[in-house]
Amino acid sequence: MEESIRKAGILLEALPYIQSFQKKIVVIKLGGSAMSSPKHVEGVLRDIVFMEAVKMKPILVHGGGNAITRRMKKEGISARFVEGLRVTDAKTIGIVREVLSGINAELAGMIEEMGGRASAMSAGENSVIRARKHRLPASAKAAGEDIGFVGEVDRVIEKDIRKLIGKDTVPVIAPLGQDERGRFYNINADIAAGEIAADLAAEKLVFLTDVAGIIRPDERGRETQPFSSLKRKEIESLLKEEVIGGGMIPKVRAGLNALEKGVEKIHIIDGRVPHSLLLEIFTDKGVGTEIVG
Questions:
Q1: How far apart, in whole angstroms, are the C-alpha atoms of residue 184 and residue 177?
Q2: Per the domain annotation, does 5 fall within a domain?
Q3: 11 located within any domain
Q4: 249 or 121, which is more confident?
Q5: pLDDT at 226 over 90
Q6: Could you tell me if residue 15 is inside a domain?
Q7: What tens digit of pLDDT does each residue of 177-220 get?
Q8: Which of 77, 98, 205, 234 could form a disulfide with 72 if both were Cys (CB 3.0 to 4.6 A apart)?
C-alpha cells in the first residue's frame, strides 16, 4: 500500500508540469556519448513516448559520432578533427550518411515498437535541414583549410516538422543537411538541435549527454555537484575561465543561441540516469543544469 501511495504522490507532483507543457515543443538532442548503451537509449525513448502520450510535442535530434568513427576505422580511414569538426571528404560523407540514416531509422522504429508514433528524417526526401558549407573563421588556427563536407544550418524546413507534431508524431532528425545543389553535409548535432529549437520557438532544448551537467571541479580537480541553474552571464564567465570546455562548448553555444532566439530554457542532463528526461521536466528538483536567459 505504501508503495502505491508513493507512486500516486509522484504522479500528483508531475500533474501541474504535465498540464503546463501540453502542446509545448521540446527538442531533445541525444548525443553519441549517451547512446553507448542500448539500455540507456531504450530508457530515453520510453520517456519520449510518455511525453507524446501526455500531449507534449517532443522532437528528437540525434548524433552518431562514435559509430561513425568506428565505421571509418573499419574502412581504414583515420578520423581527423579541426576546430572540433570532423574532416569529411567525399568517401567519409558517404559513411556519415549511411551510419546516421541507419541510426535514424532504428530510433524511429524503436519508438513505434513502444507504442509511440515517429517519423525518420535523415536525408533525401525526408531532409528538413538546408545547409551551406562551413568555412573556418579567420581567427581559427587552421583558417583557410578545406574540411570538406561539413555544413552549417542555412534554414530549417519548419512546416514539415510542424506537420508531423500536429499529428502527434515524433520527428526523429539526423544532423544531415543538403544545399541547393543536393550535396550532403555533416552538421554538428548540437548546433542542428539548437537551430531547430530556435526556429520552432521550442519551450525547452534538452541535451542528453554522459555527464551530470555543468560542473566546476574543486581545488583538487575532483568533480562536484553540477550547477542546478545558470544565467547567460554566468555561462560566459565559465567559458572565459575554461570551466566549460571540450564537447560541452558546442552544447552551451548552441543553447545560448537558442535562448537569444526565444527558446525558454536549456537543459544539460545525464542521459545514462534512468528517466533523467522525465525527472528534469516533471519534478520539482530536476536533474542536471538548466540555463536561462
A1: 6
A2: no
A3: no
A4: 121
A5: no
A6: no
A7: 999 898 999 999 999 999 999 999 999 999 998 888 888 876 66
A8: 77
The pLDDT tens digits for 42-75 are 999 999 999 999 999 999 999 998 899 999 999 9
What is the rounded distance in angstroms from the CA atom of residue 153 to the CA atom of residue 38? Answer: 29
Q: What pLDDT score does 14 carry?
A: 76
Structural domain span for residue 88: 20-292
Nearest to 283 by CA among 58, 28, 12, 54: 12
Going 245 to 96 to 63 to 36, the CA torsion angle's sign is negative
Residues with Cβ < 8 Å from 293, sequence gap 6 or more?
231, 232, 259, 260
- Average pLDDT (18-22) is 84
How far apart (Å, rounded) are the C-alpha atoms in residues 290 and 6? 27
Report the CATH number that the domain containing residue 38 is assigned in CATH.
Answer: 3.40.1160.10
If one counts the domains in the chain, the total is: 1
* Burial class for 154, CB neighbours closer than 10 Å (0-12, 13-18, 19+): middle
Q: Is a pLDDT exceeding 70 seen at residue 94?
A: yes
Give strand pairing partners of 129.
Answer: 156
Q: Is the pTM of this model over 0.85?
A: yes
**Does some domain include residue 9?**
no
